Amino acid sequence: MKELIVISGKGGTGKTSLTAAFCHLASKLAHGCVCADCDVDAADLHLILSPEVEQSQTFTSGHEATIRQEDCTACGLCKEYCTFDAIIQEQDGTFRVDPYACEGCKVCVEFCPVQAIDFPSAECGIWNISTTRFGKMVHARLHIGAENSGKLVSLVRQQAREIAAQQGAKLVIVDGPPGIGCPVIASITGADAVLIVTEPSVSGLHDFERVAQLCRHFNIPAYLCINKYDINPAQGDAISTLAEQRNIPTLARINHDHAFTAAQIERKTITEYLRTDAADSATSQVRALWETLSQHLNA
Amino acid sequence: MKTNDIQPKAPIFTLAIASGKGGTGKTTLATALAEAAGIPVTLRDCDVEEPNAHLFIRPQWHCHTEQTRPVPQIDQERCTACGACAELCQFNAIAVAGGRAMVFAELCHSCGGCRRICPEGAISDKEVAIGTLDCGTQHKNPTTPINFIQGKLAIGQVMAPPLIRAVKHIKAKETLNILDCPPGTSCPMITAVRGSDFVILVTEPTPFGLNDLELAVETVRQLQIPFAVVINRADSGDSGVRSYCRSNNIDIALEIPWKREIAEAYSRGDSLCDAAPELKQQLHTMLQQIMCVKETA
């Protein structure tokens, strides 16, 4: 079984639109594929795949401090010790924990001289196993400001791999998060291949360079797709040159096409929306990318 | 003084530019607002995983510092392997095995608990690099230069929030702070937005844009910060975002059209104010209104 992660560094380059199209194309494989959305704090893949949730579970991880006002003597030690600025002193002198800033380190709980701080488990999100027209899908939603996004990402990936193993699917396709931090690292570590989707802009180049370094840091084979290529071909070629120096092959240059937005509005993949064999169409470009990518994955 | 000059009453006004979805135009808007403000501005790039604002501001850099955070360092001579540190640590960053305590620095959140709890005083702080802080100035408009600060997370570093806090904490004399925030609704976005006077949520009129806008709205509402929406590429897509804003009484502060010239200018790192000069006055007016809202609030 192979696991492909689609990431971008920069947001809004077309990760999810391409991932959805890959899910469509891969669904025709023997034993299908399993789709997973690891962009757990701004998940969008479900908007195209329209999953029917079969199983939904809460994701509990870590703890959260809360001050019992009746026992608190307002000594302020917790505020002094907290390195996350998570203890707030109200105007009336009382102290409370800002749940969005609390990282659940337990320092305030441990050192409170009158044991006035509780430390219940934190519910950080929910995760689902669903059915889509392309097969099974695992997706999740991190609660707002919740901690442990990396752990939720790892859980989603693990569930997707288990389902793939059960049904004999040869492929797991993962829609990854933007950036290079915690959830991205959790998304790519141990994967078979990463497809980096970028755009031909100064930001695209800058962010590609950082995400390429990240892939090398974790020793994961990476491939490049330049989306909206015709907006600035020279910039696109500059990214390709840089990629080549880093041994990252450019598998596709896809032109800007409003059809991607039109497909999204109809809740379809580009390959479902634009049914044409015209060589320069977005559908043909995405199909060609998928074929090349599949060859690399199976090599 | 012209009548439309912005005169903030509060000593410092902090405006965060955020979005749920990435790639909606946060950096475009943040940099254009800094240029259109007409008053001295400090622009802070809090998207430390992928900081891009410098590509559009092109500042003259004048300081560059390594940013660190403390992780525990164990004096093995003093350590009795009692395990108190490992028991307290909620992030599995310390383990005691074979009579020794071992630190896994990449899992550490720098809470300092282990150092405080160690009965032998065997744990001290060791600073590890998490990224860099850069400061510079853009002199494009000599009367109102832009003071620019950015954080850049080191590759392979998991935790962005400590660096985001560092970007926000640098003192500046300018009265207006504009924050270019990271996407999403989890810790990096919250760390950046928290404590701001006003948030602009940038979105695009598509199903993805709407879905992520709803999450971002829920986030800033829970943080209790006043906000408005800016719709980018406003003439593409569908009407979902506008109907959502209408039915939830959310102010749409500005609509920026999709134009190939704007996309091309962006791809080269050119400012929105240069690519679409007609927007500059609109941006200025929007800023004026936002800062007035705060004054009367």
Structure, described:
The complex is a heterodimer of chains A (299) and B (297). With 299 residues, chain A is α/β, with parallel strands linked by helices. Chain A folds into two domains: 2-61 and 127-298, Rossmann fold; 65-119, Alpha-Beta Plaits (2-Layer Sandwich). Chain A has helices spanning 15-26, 45-49, 77-81, 107-111, 149-167, 182-188, 202-217, 233-245, 259-265, 270-273, 282-298, and strands spanning 2-7, 34-37, 52-63, 66-67, 87-89, 95-97, 117-118, 121-132, 135-142, 171-175, 193-198, 222-226, 250-253. Chain A has a nine-stranded mixed beta sheet, sandwiched between helices. In chain A, strands 4-7 form a two-stranded antiparallel sheet. In chain A, strand 8 (121-132) and strand 9 (135-142) form a beta hairpin. The model of chain A has no long low-confidence stretch (mean pLDDT 96). Chain B has 297 residues and is α/β, with parallel strands linked by helices. Chain B has two domains: 13-67 and 130-296, 3-Layer(aba) Sandwich (Rossmann fold), CATH 3.40.50; 69-129, 2-Layer Sandwich (Alpha-Beta Plaits), CATH 3.30.70.20. Helices cover 33% and strands 26% of the residues of chain B. Chain B has eleven helices and eleven strands. Chain B has helices at residues 26-36, 53-57, 84-88, 113-117, 161-169, 187-193, 207-222, 240-247, 260-268, 272-275, 278-296, and strands at residues 13-18, 41-45, 60-74, 94-97, 100-103, 123-138, 146-153, 176-180, 198-203, 227-231, 252-255. Chain B has a nine-stranded mixed beta sheet, with helices on both faces. A two-stranded antiparallel ribbon of chain B has the order 4-5. In chain B, helix 5 runs parallel beside helix 6 (187-193). The longest helix of chain B is centred in the last third of the chain and has 19 residues, at 278-296. Chain B is elongated and about 70 Å long. Chain B starts with 12 loop residues before the first strand and ends with a helix. The model of chain B has no long low-confidence stretch (mean pLDDT 93). Chains A and B meet through helix 4, helix 6, helix 7 and helix 9 of A and helix 4, helix 6, helix 7 and helix 9 of B.
